[in-house]
Specification:
elongated, mainly alpha, 144 residues
Length: 144
């Protein structure tokens, strides 16, 4: 019997998180593109920013989140959370919510209260949630 857990279950739980993150990003990026009165071509802006979000989602949900679930020390999750916070100044490019959702997803996976680095996972969940909420607030404030 193999001592390695199956990755089929992990990848199947990662896909819904990735699709959710892309869907929320797409909705908010669409609002940002068409609500910007100074934008001459909102369709082009939306397609480019959505493309950036999807390209960001590939390594985040294809590599980083599964890695964080395999190695539950919390370091990958906290790195994603910090990157989400650092991407806030360029939120209009689209990577912020992808990174934030990745941080929360990575922080929620395989956590254990007895693990010494559990505080990193909890910190990643808090920081990732804050970055995701900030992205939503800043994008909706752009409407005013």
């Amino acid at each position: 019997m193999s001592t390695f857990p199956s990755t089929a279950v992990r990848s199947s739980t990662t896909l819904p998180a990735a699709l959710f993150a892309i869907a929320v990003s797409a909705a908010l990026l669409a609002v940002a593109a068409w609500a910007d009165n100074g934008e001459a071509n909102p369709t082009r802006r939306f397609v480019i920013t959505l493309g950036i979000a999807v390209v960001c989602a590939i390594p985040v949900f294809g590599w980083a989140v599964p890695r964080a679930r395999r190695l539950p020390n919390g370091s990958t999750a906290i790195v994603l959370a910090v990157l989400a916070l650092l991407s806030l100044p360029v939120y209009w490019l689209g990577p912020t919510f992808i990174l934030a959702a990745g941080a929360v997803s990575a922080g929620l996976g395989e956590s254990s209260a007895s693990h010494a680095n559990g505080w990193l996972q909890r910190g990643a969940i808090v920081l990732g949630s804050a970055a995701g909420l900030a992205f939503i607030v800043v994008t909706t404030l752009q409407l005013a």
